[in-house]
Amino acid sequence: MPRYDAFLFDSDGVLVEPPTRETQLAAVESAFREVGVDAPPTDHADALAGGVTPARLTEVADAHGVAVDDLWDARERHDERSQFEAFRAGGRTRYDDVTAIAELPPNRGVVSNNHHTTVAFKLDFFDLGDLFDTYYGREMTVESLTLKKPNTHYLELAVADLGAESALYVGDSESDVVAAERAGMDSVFVRRDHNRDTDLSVTPTYEVTTLADVVALAE
């Protein structure tokens, strides 16, 4: 009997190159300008470019006298646009080892903290759609911030879609490992250039340097 009956993958940093910090900050600054803030403090721009919480987002919006939903809507649209532009311009691409996923048994999915629309774009742009049976990114809403990994929400949706009982989740961050553990899944931590020296405070089930190594775990 196979060890796993489903294989789930993070997107940025696993299937495709992650966005650069510079691109994220430029998108955030464009969002601030849209809502009338020409020179946001560095810590405010950093907050919106990273893993901002609803509480921190509210603090930032209140500090500038703008509505939370207006600021976040602008942030999401500009962030989405910047990613699409980076892919189309060749500034971001997919990893060569993604083709190894085709060697895995069926029942494969993508679960990402990025926008659902951006995940859909990447799968279409890089012709990866046939590799996966389901995919989830988050909605472009403030509420979705509470559902991001390490929350298990989107992992559980994907597992339900696939009817899996023993899924394996492949990611590139500590939150990926924690989410898998909380969902009762084994995890794979993929070390690439952007996370080569990352020190984890949690222990993944497996650690690899290429997606080709994941194929052996299916046996």
Automatic annotation (TrEMBL):
<protein>
    <submittedName>
        <fullName>Haloacid dehalogenase superfamily, subfamily IA, variant 1 with third motif having Dx(3-4)D or Dx(3-4)E</fullName>
    </submittedName>
</protein>
<dbReference type="InterPro" id="IPR050155">
    <property type="entry name" value="HAD-like_hydrolase_sf"/>
</dbReference>
<dbReference type="Pfam" id="PF13419">
    <property type="entry name" value="HAD_2"/>
</dbReference>
<dbReference type="GO" id="GO:0006281">
    <property type="term" value="P:DNA repair"/>
</dbReference>
<dbReference type="InterPro" id="IPR006439">
    <property type="entry name" value="HAD-SF_hydro_IA"/>
</dbReference>
<dbReference type="InterPro" id="IPR023214">
    <property type="entry name" value="HAD_sf"/>
</dbReference>
<dbReference type="InterPro" id="IPR041492">
    <property type="entry name" value="HAD_2"/>
</dbReference>
<comment type="similarity">
    <text>Belongs to the HAD-like hydrolase superfamily.</text>
</comment>
<dbReference type="GO" id="GO:0008967">
    <property type="term" value="F:phosphoglycolate phosphatase activity"/>
</dbReference>
<dbReference type="InterPro" id="IPR036412">
    <property type="entry name" value="HAD-like_sf"/>
</dbReference>
